[in-house]
Amino acid sequence: MRNKSILYILIVLFAGASVEARQIDRIEPLFWWSGMKNPELQLMVYGEEIAYYKPSIDYPGVYLKSSVAVESPNYLILYLDISEAEPGNFDITFSRNQEKISYTYELKQRKDSMTDIRGYDSSDVLYLIMPDRFANGDTTNDQLPMTAEYTVDRTRPGARHGGDLLGIEQHLDYLEELGVTAIWLNPVLENDGRGGFYHGYFATDMYSIDRRLGSNEDYLRLIDKTHKRGMKVVMDMIFNHIGANHPWVLDKPARDWFNVSPSQRGNHAKEIFYDNYASRYDSDVMKYAGFGIDLNQANPHVATYLIQNSIWWIEYARIDAIRQDTYPYADYDMMREWNIRIMEEYPQFNIVGEIWTEYTIGTAWWQKGSKLNSGKDTELKSVMDFTLMSIASEIFNNKSAPNGRLQKLYTHMCYDFVYPDIQNVLRFLENHDTDRFLREKPADLHAYKQGLAFLLTIPGTPQLYYGQELLMYGTKSAPGGDGNIRLDVPGGWPGDTENWFTPEGRSAMQNEAWNYLQTLLRWRKNNKIISEGTMIHFQPNQGVYVYERYLNGQSIIVILNGANQEVNLPLSRYNEILRGKTKGTDIITNRVIPLEGELKINAKEVLILEM
Ligand code: CA
Known about the structure:
The chain is α/β, with parallel strands linked by helices.
């Protein structure tokens, strides 16, 4: 009887011990590579009370340099030197008294060739897609049991609609046919927050694709298939802030993991970086508030985590470029370091920062090599011309001014001189955060054609937004808000009554618009005069704006009539770009246009002439 009791107690003790045994929930990065330029690897270990354990590694070439406990005991940060490590699996042992926990970590072999990671440049045309709103390739992933509640509901502009990566993959034919050369997807990482965060800007896991969009493997397959068509992929990342259900928010690693703002309300005073009169208060509010949970990138552990996360996605998924959200809001020095580290590993890569300022000079300040910036260089290769976006719609859609508004466009282009690298300025008429270029349903295609002809023939890298080719229109100020500019593409969902992905499903005007853009895009592809050529422009005369792109004895002349009436344009002032030629061929219609004496150009017409 007594022996039986002892046995019972022993069983209870053992059972208790096994219940008590800690485990490693996760180590990030999920794996790494040997052969990277940077010999150091940070491992973020997640596990209950893991900070009380002592880690050790016994593997040739892998040296544990330091182990850092933060304020929460449920994290441990390891720094390894892997400069001499061969690829393979190694065990990390975590010991506490007699207890040991083992975790097998993988070092893969870095790929020899990086030719599949190409960056983008001014010969490309980017096409921005909001994955939840483009096409639903897999309806079984629409409503999933996530941690946070959400309902898929296509009738609600702010709800998830069910679009996914497979939907994009299934429409690669459509994109290739249209003639774009790169796709930029709004963020695809897990956003397990209340309501579902269809737009993707509140990440809860920086190493996993949101399951409602697909798996990590689905993302890799989409990129591989896009690459096989000669097209590139731009990944959207956000370092400034994370979602409220991120593990770091639920169990804060340390007080300085996040920023604390003097005001809950952000001020978006992005001018503080060069404003001689900026107050400390405005600076702190700008950097530390505005987008919810504000990460402190000045914390070196956070900084290394974020830098490694980018490198992980590049090496793992073979993305070509990164678009960094809310760029100026993150820590300046850390972002600079991030650019340097990525370019060290991938010199051909491109990074574009969302620099949303009112004036060109503010945007140009942020571009690598700017002489306006008297401090440390940002090292940021590409910036976005938000100023053009903000003026373009009013300029091209204007019908009230008899001579149009192209003078304003001319003036905008005059300020290109402030950019150190004009070809790496991203130009666009609309994106997922702005009103559509077409504010209302268009009655004709004048504004559309002029806007796109201009966008695709000026210096810089053009970016289109999904649905633009289908004449999607709308503003954020109407009921529905952001949802108005992030509509589902009809035909992307099973059961849709219309299908805008096919010519048969589109209206006559949509087809004309689509075909116009396709002609332009196909013509622009590999056209070095446009992607590399110089520019000469003339002040608008009688509302007509004329400019030339020129390279190695070849030229293209673009003529935009902003006026409400037909204009007989005297050509003598353009002799320096006519270069003795008396005719040009319009690339859209193949019409030969005589260029002697006067040119008769219709109201709101645009000509793109090969000379
Ligand atoms: Ca789906």
